[in-house]
Amino acid sequence: MDDRIQRHAEILVDHCTDVAPDDNVLVRAPSSADDLVVALYEQLGQRGARPTLSWTNSRAGRAYARAMDEADFRPKDHRLAAMEETDVVILIRGATNAAETSDVDPEKGAAASQARQPILEERLDKRWVMTQHPTPADAQQAGMSTAAWEEFVYDAVNRDWDAQREFQEQMVEILDPASEVRIVSGDATDLRMSVEGMDAANDSGEKNMPGGEAFTVPVPDSVEGTVFVDVPFREGGREVHDARLEFEDGEVVECSASRNEDALETLLDTDEGARRLGELGIGMNRGIDRTTHHMLFDEKMGDTIHVALGNAVEECVPEGREFNESGRHVDLLVDVSEDSFIEVDGEVVQRNGTFVFEDGFEG
Amino acid sequence: MDDRIQRHAEILVDHCTDVAPDDNVLVRAPSSADDLVVALYEQLGQRGARPTLSWTNSRAGRAYARAMDEADFRPKDHRLAAMEETDVVILIRGATNAAETSDVDPEKGAAASQARQPILEERLDKRWVMTQHPTPADAQQAGMSTAAWEEFVYDAVNRDWDAQREFQEQMVEILDPASEVRIVSGDATDLRMSVEGMDAANDSGEKNMPGGEAFTVPVPDSVEGTVFVDVPFREGGREVHDARLEFEDGEVVECSASRNEDALETLLDTDEGARRLGELGIGMNRGIDRTTHHMLFDEKMGDTIHVALGNAVEECVPEGREFNESGRHVDLLVDVSEDSFIEVDGEVVQRNGTFVFEDGFEG
After folding, report:
1. Cα(B205)–Cα(A13) distance, integer angstroms
2. pLDDT of A18-30, one tens digit each?
3. Domains (ranges, CATH) in chain B?
4. In this structure, are strands B213-216 and B277-283 parallel, antiparallel, or unpaired?
5. How far away is chain B from the Cα of A342, in angstroms, using its nearest Cα?
6. Which of B39, B45, B76 is the closest to A24 by Cβ?
7. Cα B297 to Cα B287: distance, rounded to the nearest angstrom
8. B81 contact residues in A (CB cutoff 8 A)
9. Which of A143, B151, B170, B245 is deepest in the core (most CB within 10 A)?
């Protein structure tokens, strides 16, 4: 087996989820990630953990959704019961065909998401990590050869996460006491929000592998302005291009897209929380040097920020504070490499992709 | 998609498990059965059921078992919790490499089985079916081309199960009121047991697809004599050849095999019940015309009987009666096509493969 796959598996059970003997571990993976699953199971055996393997199968999911009546989607009691008894969740992505669910009615996709909400909530209380195994279809989506995509993935994943944590801590220390954040990029994006009282967090590859961002949660109702999404995002098997969202009192009041606008609208209509933001993230992983149409990687890139529609990242929300709730959590990426700045409480902390604590910063 | 796969899926959710709206359905399958899983999910969507998909992965299972300490195998709480909330279980076999677990220490395999026992017991209380999707590796094991193996599987599976039920009912009516059963084949097999008070049952493809047997449960302690297993069986990824077992007071007191005798011994030592019989089955599926080294098919063949080491088939055991309990249930096949007879309460009911109610029977 490829050493890089074994290293990836080690990082997942060690750095990301700290698997202990007797932990009930749920691995969810597509069959395309077979090699990583085998490497993981070896690690889990060495640690005396108790894994079970759930198969994410987009062809089956498509067939099911198309055959179902929209009104019939309901939470799956057996999946929820299993999640309640789970200590560690390892979620693996890796497409065989990234467009597999592109002919499923978006409203059915939304209904399915809503039915999964109790399971999602339960999962967020566990030690969990989401990662990606390199597949030919995902390489295709990135416009890369399979070998180059593998190289890219392992460069992003198999790294020194302690050094990464230290670098990011500088931004966390800026965001944590902050009140007002403003993000400006070109003429298209000018977004303002309060993060007052929220806890900024350091993602050095615990819940996302690769990690690489500083993030916090907007105060509900505080988001104002416009965001133009520079990198297409995938919603129900369709790519939404050039999405533009206008916020008033924290809520999306207008939206448009040049492609698959209906998928965007369906996303916003999933539930009440899907029209509001649940996260502000600042990409800081300098090992990721290009966008690849894979959000797990794109959102960690040094010259980007992202906001997420939907469910708030609860670890950033102090006890008793209000936060956004939703069955969805969809990241929207803004390029901040050129003609752009991030302002915290009136001071510029990043200009044209360079942070205030990096060489070459021009305030 | 191949019509035969769709027909197979229909039979599984309709005839075998009668899936209803809102049923929590657990599908367990290897990735080699992808096509059948997709067809099943379409059927489950049409019925408004709630499926979850568990991935049986023998490569991962092997890696895990080899890395685990034997003493560390324990029941998986999350799998058990899921099973408790499940209404219908659809188990699909289909190897990518039937010898995948052949280099796992048999004692670890036994420890893993024992740890699964609570889940097995829970599953047996559900509506469940076990079936097989045709794969190239399984064709290889049968010594057949992939196309011929597919043909064989679908001939056995996609049939008129009502007609099959009527044919088998004749044997059920003989076995149900019976006390003593004796099976003689050549010089090697002469096995006697009591089935007094047990309920004989008709397997017309409910729990096994294909079905095709009449079966009952031996009274514990009543089994006496010798059985020679004519068709090799697979134990922990190894084929056990020419197994011979001698019973006294219901228990195996001596055993031998010409190949992989240690796997047989480990099987017998799994737990107390693994040394005793939990089933007597009479194969009656005339659509299966050859043994293929696949027990699910072999045991239904018209000219065979089988006894199972391990857990008793509870549906044959009336309330309050004693029965054998074990984490295992391993079928052992005896060829009764030649130089053989089955006697029930002193009367021959099958000779050289022909039943008393078939043309050509010579009593």
Report:
1. 42
2. 999 999 999 999 9
3. 3-157 (3.40.1830.10), 161-355 (no CATH)
4. antiparallel
5. 44
6. B76
7. 10
8. 81-82, 84-85
9. B245
